[in-house]
Known about the structure:
- Chain B: Keywords: Nitrogen fixation.
- The complex is a heterodimer.
- Chain A has helices at residues 24-32, 46-60, 73-78, 81-95, 106-110, 115-121, 142-157, 178-191, 223-228, 240-254, 267-281, 287-307, 318-330, 345-357, 371-380, 393-399, 423-445; strands at residues 16-17, 38-43, 67-68, 99-104, 129-133, 166-172, 194-197, 232-238, 258-261, 311-315, 334-339, 364-366, 385-388, 403-405.
- Chain A folds into 3 domains: 24-157, Rossmann fold (3-Layer(aba) Sandwich); 166-206 and 217-288, Rossmann fold, CATH 3.40.50.1980; 290-449, 3-Layer(aba) Sandwich (Rossmann fold), CATH 3.40.50.1980.
- In chain A, 46% of the residues lie in helices and 14% in strands.
- By secondary structure, chain A is α/β, with parallel strands linked by helices.
- Chain A contains 17 helices and 14 strands.
- Chain A has a 5-stranded parallel β-sheet, sandwiched between helices. A 4-stranded parallel β-sheet of chain A has the order 3-2-4-5, with helices on both faces.
- Chain B is of the alpha/beta class.
- Chain B has a 6-stranded mixed β-sheet with strand order 1-12-11-10-13-14, sandwiched between helices. In chain B, strands 3-2-4-5 form a 4-stranded parallel β-sheet, sandwiched between helices. A 4-stranded parallel β-sheet of chain B has the order 7-6-8-9, with helices on both faces.
- The longest helix of chain B is centred in the C-terminal third of the chain and has 29 residues, at 293-321.
- Residues 1-11 of chain B have low confidence and may be disordered.
- Chains A and B meet through β1, α2, β3, α3 and α4 of A and α1, α2, β3, α3 and α4 of B.
Amino acid sequence: MLECIPTRKVEHTAGKINPAKACQPLGAMYAALGIHGCLPHSHGSQGCCAYHRMALTRHFRDPIMASSSSFTEGASVFGGAANLKASIKNVFKIYNPEIMAVHTTCLSETIGDDVPTIIKQSEVPEGKIVIHANTPSYVGSHVTGFSNMCKAMVSYLAESDGRAKKERVNILPGFVNPGDMREIKRLVRELGVEMTVFPDTSNVVDAPLTGRYEMYPEGGATVAEIRDSGNSKLTLALGAWSSEAAGALLQEKCGVPCVPLKIPIGLKATDEFIMALKDGFGVPVPRSLTIERGQVVDTLIDTHFHYQGKKVAVVGDPDLVIPLTEFLLTMGMVPAYVMTGTPGQRFESEIQQMLDEAGIKDGVAKAEGDLFELHKWVKDNPVDLLIGNTHCKYIARAEDVPLVRFGFPIFDRAVHYLMPVVGYRGCLRLIEQISNALLERRDRDCKDEDYELIL
Amino acid sequence: MDAYCSQPVQEALIDERQSSIVTKGKSKGHISCTSDSIAGAVSQRACVYCGARVVLNPVTDAAHLVHGPIGCAAYTWDIRGSLSSGPEMYRNSFSTDLGERDVIFGGERKLAACIDEIVAMHRPPAIFVYSTCVIGVIGDDIGSVCREASQRHGIDVIPVESTGFRSGNKIIGYRAAADALLKLIQPGEEAVKPTRKVNFLGEYNLGGEKWVVERYMRDIGVEVNVAFTGDSTVARLKQAPRACLNLVQCTGSMHYVARRMEEAFGIPYIDVNFFGADNTAESLRKIAEFYGEDAKNRAEALIGREMARIGPSLRKYREKLAGKRAAIYVGGAFKASAIIRQMKELGMEVVLTGTQTGKKEEYEKLDGMLSDGAVIIDDANPAEIEMFLREKKVDVMVGGVKERFLAYKLGVGFVDHNHDRKECLAGFDGAVNFAREIYRTACSPVWKHVKKGVKP
């Protein structure tokens, strides 16, 4: 990879080189893990299921359980109905989950399996539930898959009893780490608002080690909670790509108003999140949060000269990259290249608008890009800092640019998924990582006589 | 370890799976294996494409183009720890990234465009084009696209028939990769000039293992022509027919290639195994036997020297590890038997062994290596692994990425012997590294904290 980026001008329009996205079923599997007692089920070949489990396992460093319809040649010719029916029977018999969340793959979609009908014809034990989402891998990305599974939770489970809405907020947290979900819940608790968060992967994919193995750890939104989400007063859908569709469906189906927001990364997005709760429920903002916010502002002032004006390239999932870019602008940095692998023109226009407002002339925003292209940009016009997932480490090394790891997947560093980047505490962590990456670099590169104690 | 399980034990076993698990000294009859996994099982197996990809991916200067939607390329991008002494092309992930329209109207034109772009950009000596599930269903003729591209550009563009759903067993994928390799090494018009070199089949240079073995060979006067496929280049692979002997390490993936090369070029093959000190010594003697007296003397000298050098370290670890109970769950039986032997060298007891792709005769061989009461399991699912880890009071497990955290959750140590391993585990030094890895995890102080805690 190091010598594989041509220095001359090249045309790259066909296919992808070094993708900045994965496929839908991965996101669907991750979302399903956010339901308590749920076994995700991959309706396709065994390889898909193994790959998704492997990717999630490497990132979260926890066992990830999911079953597969184990397609063979026969299933691809005659359809996968028999495999899915057998799967439903076997899964409840052997693994006994509360709920089974089926997602499709490109194979079962291409042969045209009618999954909802097959589920209706299957033997589902009393009190158990099977839901499904259509997630062909030739559409969207892992983020779209996450969104589709969230939508399935609403369409299969959410109900409204028609009575007055409860003083409670539904939060759709988006495709974030369990550490972020935990922090979002803490913020809501600080405000004293009752909540239902779904999907919620905290205490599922970051379960504590007790010497026991729980196939279904205690975390996750329960089926009852998701069912009752139709009776909440308000939904906050965090992240347009991963949460908006489920929020809109909940509004349509159960009459719960939905406020679409950014995932609360950075000062501005966190403020908006807190204000939405304040306005929605008429609660005062507690002093504890004002103090937290004040500490972020204080830290920004204390450290601004470390990163002021530095050029940065950012790549990741759209719902994370949009608020992160906003925060980088808050910090006074210059986002030179902002990319996501996920399709959606809206990404480009939102980023472009932010850059325009900040008076940044030649920033580039691109949806559906790949890391080859990002690497070429960075090679042709160097940046001071790179922010992205583990795959960016090759670009970082080849172009000798510091890398702050952010997003999914992170395979080569520990503890990331436990440490929130959302909320005011997340701001501090981002400032810490960004400042320190640049300061480390300065220490590494300076002459002996410039090596200083105080920076 | 009085761990408790989330499921009653008897329910962890699917009726249909009973015949895939045997206990030495108790079970009657043979293990049932090589069948497809049951629908709905949480299997640790993968697919045909996965098998093909892991075999071919280490070819360092080829472009590996995955024809299908993005997923298959994304998940297999650079996950094999094969090292290269030169080109890094194989660390890139090329995908045709098929979208909905391509699936409806066919992906052949897009595939041709991607190949043209790769050639224009990099001009690699060869491009492997992998087919995936969708391609098998929509019927893209990748063979003819590759043939035309080959003629257009004058390089090898080789289709790999690795449609995922053909089987849940990686072996079929190994075969698809083998066929692609055989196509690549097919000599042209010129006559093959034989040499005294060996090919090293089924060696993927994980953690630089090929380089270690190559050093030993050089020491006994034998030169390695090329490895299939660790640290190989297209040009080196094309020289493969010139060898006088094939060494086969990973039997699952490479026996077929060895047999085909024997038929086509008259090259004999022998099975070797460089995992563990005893296996390494045995393999070196086998190879020296082929080369005659001088090589035999040099091999004995090397073995004596190396054994003396690593002896103290191995003894030190043996003292710490003797009596510890081990479980093994790996891809193929070749690896399993090598690990069993190493465990025995370290004075450990293997109480559970399983593989994803073992064959009946291989399992019989494994059975012969184990003591009574040990469990052998084919295509295990996590519930079964969990059950036996607890039941057999395992101290340390050897496996791959999907088993690692399962073991950890149960307070069991773990060593990776799969893609994610970064340590060289081959040869004499590898034997010490392996013992150190086992020691590091089995004797770490961290396990003491699993049971401690603050009282609620």
